[in-house]
Amino acid sequence: MPVIIRLSQQKKHPNRYNCFLDNEERISITDDLILQFNLSRGLSLSEKELTEIKSAADIAFTREKALELLSLREHGSGELRTKLLQKGYQKAAIAKVIEYLQEKRYLNDDRFADLYARELIQSKRFGPLKVKEKLFQRGIRGDVIERILSDYDHQICIGNCAYHFQKKFKNGVSSEDRNEKAKAVRYLQGKGFSWDVIAEVISKT
Q1: How far is it, in rounded angstroms, from Cα 57 to Cα 53?
Q2: Residues 21, 82: one domain?
Q3: Mean pLDDT across the stretch 4-9?
Q4: Alpha-carbon span 152 to 169, nearest angstrom
Q5: Which residue, of 82, 103, 124, is where some domain finishes?
Q6: Range of 84's domain?
Q7: 17 close to 36: Cβ distance less than 8 angstroms
Q8: Phi, psi torsion values for 16, nearest 5 degrees
Q9: Residues of the chain with pLDDT > 70: what percent?
Q10: How far apart are CA 110 and CA 19, in angstroms?
Q11: pTM metric for this prediction
Q12: What are phi and psi of 120, to 5 degrees?
């Protein structure tokens, strides 16, 4: 069984320690885990204990990074999972951390989706198709996206489309200039508006 030969505090992370074993293995752990597992120099560890310590450390470090990301802004669970995977954290640890964060209500997909949708609709004034695309990219569930889009008022949609149209084409477009009209349609489609909404907005100019 491996034996702990030294515990040393990390310089860059005061709450973390390096645990050196006599088999030349080194494990990074948190100060909480030292207390939880009663770790000390000279302690022999069974393979089961060693596995449990490593698993607990993975979860602790993953939770620490997840909380750091959430401190910057709200995230959906899908988006947070993707970011943690990209940073090299283990799937099993990520799953447990996300479950923990949801239980503590630090992570709530409906709340995140509503906040993000409000930004997309009220601040950036995107159309429904762009809102759907953006929410999907953030890992929001399909049923949540459909709920949000069903609440996207048609008159607000018209107003948002008109905002982008007037901002880009200050003098409007001539109904006789097919190229200019096609350019306007492509631009507004890129902002997420359907042909019906675009046609209604352009016809009023």
Answers
A1: 6
A2: yes
A3: 95
A4: 25
A5: 103
A6: 4-103
A7: no
A8: -115, 150
A9: 99
A10: 41
A11: 0.79
A12: -65, -40
